[in-house]
Amino acid sequence: MASGLTGSGPGLPWSEALPPDADVAIVGGGFSGLMTLVHLVRLVPGGRFVVLERRPRALPGPAYGGCDHEHLLNVPAGRMGAFADDPGAFHRWLESVHPGRFTADDFAPRALFGQYLTELVRSELVAARGRVCMVRDAVVHVDRMPAGVELLLASGRSCAAGSVVIAPGLPPARTPWTHVDHGAPRRSLVPDPWEPGSFAGLDPGAEVLVMGSGLTAIDVVQGLRRAGHRGLVRLVSRHGRLPLAHARPGEPAPAVPRERFAGGPLQVLRTLRALARERAGLGLGWQGALDAVRPHVTSIWRAWTPAQRRAFLRSARPMWEIHRHRAPRAILDDMERQVRSGMLTLERGELAELRAGADGGVRATFRTRAGASFERSAARIFNCIGPGMSVRDTVDPMIGSMLRSGAAVADPVGLGLRTDEAGRLVRSAGDVDERMHLVGALRRGDLWESTAVPELRVQAEAVARALSGLARAPAKPAGFPHVEGVPEGCG
After folding, report:
1. What are phi and psi of 31, to 5 degrees?
2. What is the CATH number of domain 3-71+109-172+389-472?
3. How far is the C-alpha of 314 from the C-alpha of 305, rounded, in Å?
4. Strands (E), 125-185
């Protein structure tokens, strides 16, 4: 991170120290988990909480801790406040740190949002006075006990909690080369582009392959250029499309009643197209049509049958993604300049085979939807295909364990874990578990919209409120017992 941009404030106090028990355990140290913690600390003055994160970063989560200092948010600063009732808080914080540098309509650097979130959480930790323990460890199994939950950790330790909040984000998908790799050198394969050193050792003039063409792929291209890479970058995805641009500032979204979006996927998409045409006739951007449907997306999704949801995922999801998950215009303009100059190509294909190439690189064979094949060589290949679309195929130990034990079940289309409207996990027996809640992206199968801050901040508060009564019930001491050499609050 550039010190002139992100500041020099301390990170969160992660440690190896683990308390034997807590009122609420939160699995995941990204936005969802941390904001659930903030609300719990405020709602339960005597509660004791533990947050477990397998790989803490300097700033929270890969979204804010894996980026460089110029990767941008995809939501304007004026709508990124951490609390649902105060969406302008992040922009006010920006004004206090960098006066006059960002307007409410600007897409600020993600690292700055990570710093804002970190400062918010640290202030709550101070107010909590030793009631919170931030633990660096991975949860691999969750057992339901008669009066609570036991979490088994990768280190071999365990922690008991009255309740647990599962907030891990989306578990990673298998890489696109998992089943087609015929001995490509591992140093040329980048499964996770947010890992430190992903760009290290790359010849600045070498050809690079990027699997995917969505927002993560754009981030990788931009990051490579900032790191001084000047060679050809090939983006290859099944549909070969970049995300579309955000609307110009100042264009209001129309208020459209839910009733207008009645019907199945085909009818809803027709309505969206009609709205977009109406806006075009007024000289406005089509983006407002998508913004108009956003407040109703969860209601629409829930009204569809599992068969209708699967039809949408199969046929319409790629087009929905590029219209819904948009990019700042300035970044897309730069991508287009790179295409025109020959530094960037966008191609359609699916990886069919990967082998060792010349000079320690890779040789990839792609197959098009029409059945044709083509080959590309590169010094390095980056996986930017995004999360998996089936939770049943997860390689996450905790999620896999919960599915096998029946502590959780997949939602009807398999995108995530099934919950009730309050976010409580549904077990294999069909009943809900009042002591196990889910926050974040793994609710996408029930809610669809469950990945952006405007939705996640609402979920975090709702789950914290639901758990606050349970956390108050036991008579517990005010803080964790002090142990010599252990951070305050972690006994």
Report:
1. -55, -50
2. 3.50.50.60
3. 14
4. 132-136, 139-145, 148-153, 158-166
Q: Which of 165, 160, 225 is nearest to 417 (CA)?
A: 165
CA atoms of 475 and 203, how far apart (whole Å)? 61
Given a cut of 70, whether residue 491 has pLDDT beyond it is no
Exposure of 205 in the CB half-sphere (CA atoms within 13 A): 0
Residue 195's pLDDT is 86
Give residue limits of the domains in the chain.
3-71+109-172+389-472, 186-244+326-383, 258-324
* Fold matches, 3-71+109-172+389-472 and 186-244+326-383: yes
What tokens were used for 50?
């533990």
Q: Tens digit of pLDDT for each residue in 303-334?
A: 999 999 999 999 999 899 999 999 999 999 99
Helix ranges (DSSP H) in 196-264: 215-226
DSSP H or E stretch at residue 153: strand 148-153
Token digits for 188? 């040329």
- If you ran DSSP here, which 8-state letter would residue 414 be given? S
Helix (H, G, I), strand (E, B) or coil at 464: helix
Q: Which two tokens stand for residue 362?
A: 């890779």
CA gap 282, 184 in Å, rounded = 54
**Distance, CA of 212 to CA of 173 (rounded, Å):** 13
For 212, the 3-state DSSP assignment is coil
Q: What is the pLDDT of residues 331-379, one digit of tens each?
A: 999 999 999 999 999 999 999 999 999 888 999 999 999 999 999 999 9
> What is the pLDDT, as a whole number, of residue 70?
85
State the residue for tokens 């533990």.
50
Q: Distance of CA 171 to CAs 54, 133, 292, 433, Å? A: 12, 24, 30, 22
Pairwise CA distance, residues 163 & 151, whole Å: 10
Say which CATH topology domain 186-244+326-383 has. Answer: FAD/NAD(P)-binding domain (3.50.50)
pLDDT confidence of residue 395: 86
- DSSP letter, residue 195: S
Outline where 7-85 has alpha helix (H).
31-43, 61-65
Confidence of residue 9 (pLDDT cuts 50, 70, 90): low
10 Å Cβ neighbour count for 247?
20
- Reduced to 3 states (helix: H, G, I; strand: E, B; else coil), residue 487 is coil
Residues in the chain: 491
Q: What is the pLDDT of residue 471?
A: 67
Burial environment of residue 361 by CB neighbours within 10 A (0 to 12, 13 to 18, 19 or more): buried
Kindly report, residue by residue over 229-277, the tens digit of the pLDDT. Answer: 999 999 999 999 999 999 888 887 788 999 999 999 999 999 999 999 9
CA 252 centroid distance within chain:
27
DSSP string, 248-275: PTT-PPP---GGGG-SSHHHHHHHHHHH
195-209 average pLDDT score: 93
Statement: residue 479 has pLDDT above 70: no
